[in-house]
Amino acid sequence: MNTTLPGDGSADSATVTTERLTFRVPPAFFELPVYESDEQVGQALIELAQDIYPQGTPELWFQYAATQLPVVAQMMDAGVSYAGFCLLDLDGRRSTATVTAALLESVPDGQKMTASSVAAELAGLGGDQAQVETVWLAAGEAVARFSADITTLPAEVTDSGRPEDVEVGKIAVYLPLRKEAELVLFELSTPCMQDWDLYSDLFFNIVNTIELNDGGSPAGAPVPEQPENLPPEAPTDATSGVQAPLQAQSVRDVFG
Q1: Bigger pLDDT: 236 vs 43
Q2: Three-state secondary structure along the chain?
Q3: Residue 110: band (very low, low, confident or very high) from pLDDT cuts 50, 70, 90
Q4: 20 to 30 A Cα–Cα from 39, which one of 130, 147, 176, 189?
Q5: Cβ-contact 143, 122 below 8 angstroms
């Protein structure tokens, strides 16, 4: 997995290239080394800790690496091909979000799925308050699933220094690759719900840059026309200034 600056020399985004996918992420994102071998992950995590905490101590770097090691191992086992997170200071308040990407090569029964069939399957899961919508990306028609869970953050990452229960907002975007009977899965999660507007817009700006590296259209078909009832002005991609053809207004309103 390679991360390089775009060919136009822009410093506004970084291009991520995995084995099958290319997409752009803001340069402020740190990458977890899910692309390293098992033997290299530990050292890569220590180097990541040094980037995050340049004024830290070897003890702090080792502690960070030890904490993240099982997280990265779990992601690698799940087939995650990219994992990145940001650590922002918003007017003196810490804020963070994580984005992961995976290519699901094992579609149930080998069936070629469409956005409509994926949406129907997700809507039928039930058991929570998740919301499922169809969205239109530059790469084709996709499905977005919005949910919120309660999780306990460890004392090491809270401002109070004590474990805290927080609401974690999540978005999962499924892009069917109809030629290959596969799915591209991108996920966003953040415990900073007050910054939901920022992260949801940023996330859809990222997934709107997805390209398949085999030279074909990911969906294997022309991008569907936008519904007539979409807002007249599409949201603007903050990293490139390009308008993004998706239903961002409903995205921003999911959690009120």
Answers
A1: 43
A2: CEEECCCCCCCCCEEEECCCEEEEECCCCEECCCCCCHHHHHHHHHHHHHHHCCCCCHHHHHHHHHHHHHHHHHHHHCCEEEEEEEEEEECCEEEEEEEEEEEECCCHHHCCCCHHHHHHHHHCCCCCCCEEEEEEECCEEEEEEEEEEEEEECHHHCCCCCCEEEEEEEEEEEEEECCCCEEEEEEEEECCHHHHHHHHHHHHHHHCCCEECCCCCCCCCCCCCCCCCCCCCCCECCCCCCECCCCHHHHHCCCC
A3: low
A4: 189
A5: yes
213: amino acid identity, one letter? N
Give residue 5's pLDDT: 31
The residue whose two tokens read 């402020």 is 28
Beta carbons of 97 and 190 less than 8 angstroms apart? yes
